[in-house]
Each structure stands twice: as structure tokens, then as C-alpha cells.
Amino acid sequence: MAEAATPDPRWCCYFFLYDGSKVKEEGDPTSAGICYFYPTETAADQQDLLCGQLAGVCRCVSELSCSPVRLLRLRRRKFAVCTRGDFLWALGCAVDIPDISIHGFLEQLIGLFCFYNGPVRESYQLRSKEELAAQWGKYLSHLQGGATELHHIFSSLRTIDSTHIDPLLLLKAALILQACQRCPLVLAGCILYCGRVVSTQMPPDLTAKVLVHETEAYSQDLANGVTPTESNVTSIPVFLTPSELHALRCPPVDWACRSHCLPLQANHTKKSRLSREHYDPCFSPSPSLSVFGDAPFSQDHSGSCDQVLANGTLQPSMQERSGAQEQDEEILGAPLPAPPLKGENGEDCESHDNGHQGGGGDSDGSKRQDGCGEQGQPANEEPGNQTGPQGPRQRSDEEQLEKIDRQEPNDNKGGSEEDGGRKGEEMGRNTEHRLSGTGVRGVCSEESQNNERIQGGKTPPYTPALGALPPPLVAMALYQHRVRGLVLALLVEPNFQSDAAAMEEVHYSSLASLNGLEAHLRSTTAGTPGPPGGYTFAHHDCLQNTLTSENPVRPLACVTMRVSSRLTVTCAAAAVSRVACALRRPRALTSALTSLIAAAARVSARSQPVWGAGGPLERSFVRATSLLHSHFSQAVTLQEAIVRNAGSAVYGTRSTAQETYFLQQGATVRNSGVPNPQDSAFSLPSKARHRLLKHGVNLL
Amino acid sequence: MPKRFCSVLQDPPQSRKCPAERPMASKSSLLKVILLGDGGVGKSSLMNRYVTNKFDTHLFHTIGVEFLNKDLEVDGRLVTMQIWDTAGQERFRSLRTPFYRGSDCCLLTFSVDDSQSFLNLANWKKEFIYYADVKEPESFPFVVLGNKLDVAERQVGAEEAQQWCRDNGNHPYFETSAKDSTNVAAAFEEAVRRVLAAEDRAEHLIPTDTVNLHRKPRSSASCC
């Protein structure tokens, strides 16, 4: 990337991969288990100390609580933790980074490694630690560099600034991708320009992975002073999870027969892929389907999916993996409100919700597809039967975490599950399963304030088995055609590379268009920013995982929060800020309030601006956004919030599809200290609605 | 004024940067040839037929511009022709017009089974001259192509087309078919010949033009 933003050290103070299988005996040195440690210059004994202690704590806590450790919060640092089988990853960052963001960071990091190197265990068997350390280092620096702080917070894709280019060019890019897909060996593609996404047919997380290679190649060229004048074509092996692959292979044609379940699936998707269909044909809802019971699965899928799965070898692994994988990601997913679920399975969801206070902000939305898939299946059968279908899954370690989660709330779940099972049987076992699954998932995670707290979900008991097998990855190829700064990246079947005719066809059918698109994009000037509108905003599209923003301007010092609706509570935090809260459900109030106050105190107590590059004004806006985003992710009922100081206020609002943050500058503030109808802050929502319309942000 | 003069002055930085697919051995080795004409007359098909020898019946509207490079030898001279294909539809006008500048030759294309596309040739010529900022339109090399020769029902007769060419600057006229590859290579090669001939003429008229014009700022300073 051309922009050389310095990595913010707060995002990754420490990162390590620890292999527990290497340290079994009393005499085994801890260092034997350390596969990679960042910063690499850390003294060996300190590495041992940190890895040993953290791994020990994680193991201890997860065994005691029968649930996996996801977050360890210390006084000045917190560690996002991920365990898969014997492997443990921990990423240490500053405490004020939202949990959801740091988990997203860690997941991305692991995902990147697996995408380019294949399964971790095999990688470390086949290649040297040093070689792989370089890979980790590369992914770390990629994830930390380049984008703005806001991008980090939302783990969003870097996209080209579409406000300054002709929309027809986006259409052109999309058509190029479609033309490439006429070759049956091409699964999906994306077009990148100077390290930014122009158009993509892939799910956002997959696009993000593809972006790494491109960005790296591009910056290398720049660094070497090489102008990549010649168009060139490369192809490298990559590894997809079965769920990713399934999503890509499943033809859009199938939607029709599945339309009945779309609304639901939407709710399960990580980045809330709510209505993805309309945007990205390749992003079909299939992943969730793939993990349903066998019967619905085969019913639902036809065409290529069936073929893919027909041999039977892929299918189990897909089920396994997609569940596991997505689930893992999902925990970090943006929170989605429960109501849609209730619509169809009201009782179930409700009962779960009640059982779990705090509403599992992140989880419920997060438990989208695979969560529901996994659970759909149990719901499908009596607990006793579950050993059968679930057997293979147990090997997947990620799953295992899931399973652990589900253990505790058994009591709660029993009823609903049976319920779901029955309905499922009666009604063709599709929707209901999904629903009960979702309901369950919906509840389980709230990992925010408690240090090492892991969410509990409800499921039949599973024995957490350490040493589970890693989920299988499928080898594919990443074809890249570069025309200067423009890159066409296609995920293709491995035999594409040996098929000269297919390669030639794809190459020639896209070459002229790529040349033209590159010429267009190059001649597009960066565009002058419009006249200052006196406001600043950030808009995160959860479906496409993209971010639109305009430069922030003014400092904030402290916090007041307001949450929409019935109930209003006011309280003071740290003598600086006031928190006014109104929540839909009183049950959630206590915890939400507590965390708001704590957050307010944290923000206000901080004398120096903390967030990344930019002036203090920008940092403050970013900080407020981060704070709000964090709370949105934790409290599912939270829809609107205002963070303010004496001079300005940031308004945040979210729905399943988007999160928007808005700062009005220079507004006359009549802040009486207690919420009252005259307070200018309360006009922010309507201002935001009006001002942002012209940016294509619809808050109505 | 000879053509070389125009070409030097009107060469925007863009035009010399765009031909980027391969390194330029010398300035004259890369010729920018642009295809203009109504939507659907077969400009993209002509380009694809000529460069990749493929014909695709399912081409979508071109959006904006596209280009391909083709190395060829004409009359013993090696040149790289950069063929720019443009969008014919009116709504794409703002996207395509910036790329007219720097063209060495313009191929005005119509479809022999569509008389309106033939009538529009004059507009295309005018648009090109305006946006490409051609200083000497009379001497600028245009070539006229009547495509879709394979179609049975013609609406434009060969004689009619030739007459138009004679009346509008004596442009060469080719009847082509991208579908069955008739006359396509001949048309593009003729375009190259025209460009080379124009350049030769220019060099002949003002042998030292290139040097003088390139250093114009300096020489004017010395004059004062």
C-alpha cells in the first residue's frame, strides 16, 4: 500500500502461537511449544514466562469452567485467546480496544495463515519455524498497517473511495468478474486497485485474505522501485475452509428454493450478511445450510453443490468445518438484535434470552449460520442420538469450544430443543432447527466485562477433548492477473492451472477490460473533498464489511450516553460524565449501565488522546466510535447512543445491517447536565439522518 | 502545419503513459488507434478478432474504454498498435472522451445493416476532433469501417459509404466482418500505414521539427 501508516503498537503488543502437544512432560521446556512469538526480539525467558503462564491459565480456566477461554483481561493489557486442539494463539493489546475488534484481529490473523499455508499442524511439520515466522510477521504487519484506526475497529475491508469514481466503473469491474466466471473452474473473484477492493464476489472475510497477497506484491514492487508495467499472471496455492468453499460453489440458482429461510440466515451471519443476496451472488446463504441435518441439506442443494458433495467425502468435513469455523468467527461478529428471531420462534428465543442475562450481544447475531447449523442438528434429534451425527465434529477443536459453551445451560435448553426437534420433524425440519439453533446461540456470549469469562450456550453436553483434529482445509488456487496497480484475483479450482485453454480464455476475455479499467482508475483524480459540512461521520456496512467515513474534527473529553426508548436512567460517572440510559428491557439495564459507566470513566480519566494517527480531534472521534462500537457489540438492545463532552457530541446508531457514527461540529450545546427535551444533543439523530443522506447513508 | 507538430503538442502526458503494456523502444513504435462508432456496431468484436482472433457473441456493452496491444510488421517496420475500444452509447460519453487525446489514428465504425450508425459517422468524427484536440483535422488519418458484412440485409450500400468517405476527406473505406474475420487485418494494417505515412510526410516537411518543438520553452527563452 502506498499509504505508510505506522502500525499502532496498541493493537498488537504480543502475539504468540503455542503448541501444547510439545510440552507434555514435566521436563519439557516451554520454549519447545512456542511456535511463534511477537515481538520477535523478546528475550527467550520472557517468552517462556508469558506463554507458559497464559497457556496454563487458559487450560486451567477452561477445564474448570468447561468452556474455552476467549479473553484474558489484565490490568493494562488484555489477551484475545483462541485454542484449536493443542494450539493456542494469544494476542495481547491495550485494554481500551474493543473486545470484538481484537477478536476480529486474531481471527483474521489465524485465517490468513491457514489460507496461505494450509493447516497449522501440517505447516509446522513441513516447514521450518523461521520460514513460518516470516509468514506470521507478514500477516501481522499487514493487519496493522495501511488502514485507518476506524478500519481496525470494524475489521473492515479497505475499499476504493467510491464517491470519487464513476459508478459505471464499478459496474465494469463487476462485469469483468462475471465474464471470468463463465469458465467453470473459476469460483469467484475480486478486483483490487492499489491494495483496495474495487469489486468482489467473495464474502468479505475471504476478500480480506486475498487482499494480503496483492497488497504485499504491490508494495514490494513499489519498494523495489519497479513499476509493474508488464501485465503478469501468477498463481499460488491457497486453502479454503469447507464452508468458504461451499459458499463459493453453491450456485445462486439455488436461492429460489431456499428463499423461505433467507431472512433467518441473515441473522446468523457474522458480519450480518443480512441481505447479501442482492449484493453478492456468490455469497449465498449456503454455509448455514451445509451444516443442517443431512436430510434438509441434501434437499436444499442441487446442481453443483450436490455434485460437490455427492461423493460423500466432502460433505462431512464441510459440515464439521463450517460449523466450527464460522462459529469461531461468529463470536466476534457484530451483534444483531434478537427480534427477527422472535418473530418466528418467539418462545424459544425468549426463554433463552431470559436464561442468559446480558443478552449475549455478540453472540446472538454472531451465532448466525453455523451456530445455528450446529445446533440445528442437535435440535433435530434427541440428545441421546446426537453422538452419531456429532461424532465427527467432536474432532474439530473449534467446535469443541462451541460444545463446551453449550454445556452449561442445558437445563434451559432442554425444552426448547425438544420443541424444535418436534416441529422440525413435523414441518420438514428446516426452519425450526435453524430457529432453535439461533435462539440458543443468541444467548451465549457476553464476554465483555468479565476477564476470562466465556460464554455459555446451551447444548447437550459434550466432553471437551483436547487434541481434537484440525478441521480439514481444501486446497485451491489463487490466480492473479496484474495490470499495473490493478489486480484481478480469482479463486480457481486447482486444475485450472494445468488447463491452458481455460487460462487463456480467462486471460483474453478480461485483458482488454482490465487495461481499460486500469486506465480509468488511474485517470480518476483523488477528488477534492467537498466543502466542509461541519460534521464528521463513520458508516460501517456490516453486510459488505466496508467503511465510509469523513475526517473527524473535534475533541471529546467525556461521555454521556443515551439509549433509546422506554426507560430512562441517569447517573454520573467519574464526576465528569453522565450516563442516561433507556433500554427496551430492564433486565439488560443493569449490566449495560455498569459497563457504560465504566467506559465513561475510562474515557474521561484518560488525559491523553490514545487513538492512532491524526490530530487529537480525529482521535477523539475514533475513540468515541470505538467505545460505542464496543457497546453495540455487547448489548443487543442498544440501538442508539450519544457520547458527548462539553463542546460536542457523537451520535451512534446501528441496525442489523449498519453502524453509523455522527459528529456535529460547532453545534451550540445546551447541555444542562440532565437529559431534557431542549438538549441540543437530542437533535443529533435527525441531523444525522439528513446530513448523511447525501453520502448514501440511509438512517430512516 | 505538418502532422508531427500536432502530435507533439497534443500529446498529453496521459497518452504517453497509457501505452504501458510494454516498454516503448522508440516513440514511433507505439501507435494509438481508436475505434469509434455507435453502440453495437461491433467495435469490441473487431478488436478481439484482430488481436486474439476470437469472436464472442455474448459481449456486453463496453463500459468506458478498453484496449489491447498488438505487435505487427507493416512494410518492413515493426510497430506496436494499441487499439482502444470505446463505448458507443451516449451515456458513456463522459467516460470515453478523455481517452481520445493522443490518438494517432481514428477508425470510424458503422454497421452495414444499420443506416443510423452510418449517418452518425459525421458526429463521431466531430466528437473525436473536438475531444482529441486535433489541430489539423484535414490531415488526420481516419479510416472508415463498415462492419457486419456477414449480415444478409444491408441497409448501407458500399457505394454510398465510399461516397461519404470521398466527400469527407478521402478516407479509406473497408467492409469488414468480425464474425468471419473478413478484411479485419487489412483494415487495421491500413490504419498503421496511414499513420506511418503521415509521420513520414511530417518529417519530410520539417526535418528538424521534433527537436525544435520539444525544446520550445528553451528556444523561446533564447529568442527573447
Automatic annotation (TrEMBL), chain A:
GO terms for molecular function: guanyl-nucleotide exchange factor activity; small GTPase binding. Signal peptide: none annotated. It comes from the Eukaryota. GO terms for cellular component: BLOC-3 complex; cytoplasmic vesicle; lysosomal membrane. Residues 394-435 have a biased composition (Basic and acidic residues). Residues 615-689 form the CCZ1/INTU/HPS4 third Longin domain. Residues 333-463 are annotated as: Disordered. One of its GO terms (biological process) is melanosome assembly. Residues 14-118 form the CCZ1/INTU/HSP4 first Longin domain. This is CCZ1/INTU/HSP4 first Longin domain-containing protein. It comes from Anguilla anguilla (European freshwater eel).
Automatic annotation (TrEMBL), chain B:
GO terms for molecular function: G protein activity; GTP binding. Its cofactor is Mg(2+). It is a lipid-anchor. Transmembrane segments: none annotated. CDD domains: Rab9. GO terms for cellular component: cytosol; late endosome; lysosome; phagocytic vesicle membrane; plasma membrane. Its EC number is 3.6.5.2. It comes from the Eukaryota. It catalyses: GTP + H2O = GDP + phosphate + H(+). One of its GO terms (biological process) is Rab protein signal transduction. It is found in: Cell membrane; Cytoplasmic vesicle, Phagosome membrane. Keywords: Cell membrane, Cytoplasmic vesicle, GTP-binding, Hydrolase, Lipoprotein, Membrane, Nucleotide-binding, Phosphoprotein, Prenylation, Protein transport, Transport. InterPro entries: P-loop_NTPase, Rab9, Small_GTP-bd, Small_GTPase. The keyword Phosphoprotein applies. PANTHER family: RAB FAMILY, RAS-RELATED PROTEIN RAB-9A. Belongs to the small GTPase superfamily. Rab family. This is small monomeric GTPase. It comes from Anguilla anguilla.
